[in-house]
Amino acid sequence: MPTSEGLEELPKTQRERLAYIEVKAFFCGDLTRHDIERRFGVKPAASARDLAAYRRLAPSNLVYDASLRKYLPTPDFAPIFEQSAERALMWFRSGIGDGLSVSGRRVIPCESAGELVSPDVRTLGALTRAITAGELVEVSYLSLSSGPSAKTLAPLALADTGLRWHLRAFDQEKKRFADFVLTRIIKATPLSRPVPDEQRLEHDAQWTRIVALDIVPHPGVKHPKAVEADYGMTDGALRLQLRAPMVGYALKRWGVDCSEDHSLDPSAHHLWLANPQTLYGVESAALAPGYKVPELVAKAR
Fold first, then answer.
1. Do residues 170 and 194 make contact, with C-beta atoms less than 8 angstroms apart?
2. Region at 232 (left for phi over 0; alpha for psi -120 to 50; beta for the rest)
3. Is residue 205 helix, strand or coil?
4. Residue 190 and residue 230 share a domain
5. Residue 90, in any domain of the structure
6. Disulfide check for 182: which of 42, 115, 165, 173 has CB 3.0–4.6 Å away?
7. Which domain holds residue 175?
8. Which stretches of the chain are DSSP H helices?
């Protein structure tokens, strides 16, 4: 059985390396000695000692695959460091680190628009391992419109809307890229089948589209300089670039009036999108306050 006994007796720097071993193996699905050496700049002898120390503390957590030359998490993996979905998502958003501090490079695609909610950590681990491995998963999903269902997904990336976390994935049944709320994924089972090339992230037209937003104080605000100060505007504007699937969530969260004639109440909407035409063809724009889908597009749908 894994145990945290003896951890506090180890030097802090070694505890950080052991925490990284656990995080990398659990959330990415594999680990090599080179991962440790590259992450911390240590020699092979040191990485070997760290792996030996971790395996003494948690003998059932990792198994070595000689054909892959990698350590893999076992089905009975039980963390010895305190893990949480919140911390894991913070690592993915800012760059996965050592488990005790936030640093390092990103290991899976992950975009953020703000704060987060808390999905199940084991479900999250199954999904992030599948993203890293490029493999399909079967999930039990709870939909507001159709209730519970089983879905086969190609999980591609995580996205933080500011209110909750989504999984960007290709839906095998509906044959389209879509967002799935992480907390509504009750169970995720790896299928050990590769994601087809045409279903990978680079073929997701919405994800790869970068939308330029020019956000200014709402023309109805009496003292626009106060709004400029609130948001640290330069020359009276915020000029942002977001991936298309994030745009609608961000504009809704920030309360940006996206109507062409800035007709929404300025007391509730301190900001206005000065270039609403940039939302043309952005699927998530349906969430943007005051935005009306152009008539030709509406008829086409």
1. no
2. left
3. helix
4. no
5. no
6. 165
7. 110-199
8. 12-28, 33-40, 44-57, 85-94, 121-133, 205-208, 224-231, 244-254, 295-300
CB-facing half-sphere around the CA of 208: CA atoms within 13 A: 8
- Residue at 103 is within a domain: no
CB 102 within 8 A of CB 91: yes
pLDDT value of residue 162: 80
Cα separation, 100 vs 201, in Å, equals: 30
Residue 301 pLDDT: 41
What pLDDT was estimated at residue 110? 76
Number of folded domains that form the chain: 3
Q: Which residues pair with 135 in a beta bridge?
A: 194
**pTM (2 d.p.):** 0.74
CATH number at residue 157: 2.30.30
Instruction: Flag whether 20 is in a domain.
Output: yes
> Quick check: is 98 in a domain?
no
Q: What tokens appear for 57 in the block?
A: 């503390």
Task: Identify the domain boundary among 159, 179, 199.
Answer: 199
What is the reported pLDDT for 66?
96
For residue 123, what are the CA distances in angstroms to 16, 51, 84, 152, 264?
24, 25, 12, 15, 40
Pair (184, 165) in one structural domain: yes
Helix (H) or strand (E) holding 210: strand 210-217
Asked whether residue 218 falls in the same domain as residue 279, the answer is yes
Report how far residue 243's alpha carbon sits from residue 249's, in angstroms, rounded to the nearest whole number: 11
- CA distance readout (Å), 94 to 111, 112, 123: 9, 9, 20
User: What does pLDDT average to in each consecutive run of 10 residues of the chain (301 residues)?
Assistant: 70 92 93 94 95 95 96 94 81 59 60 67 94 97 91 96 91 97 94 96 97 98 96 95 96 96 96 97 96 62 41
Whether the Cβ atoms of residue 21 and residue 89 lie closer than 8 Å to each other: no
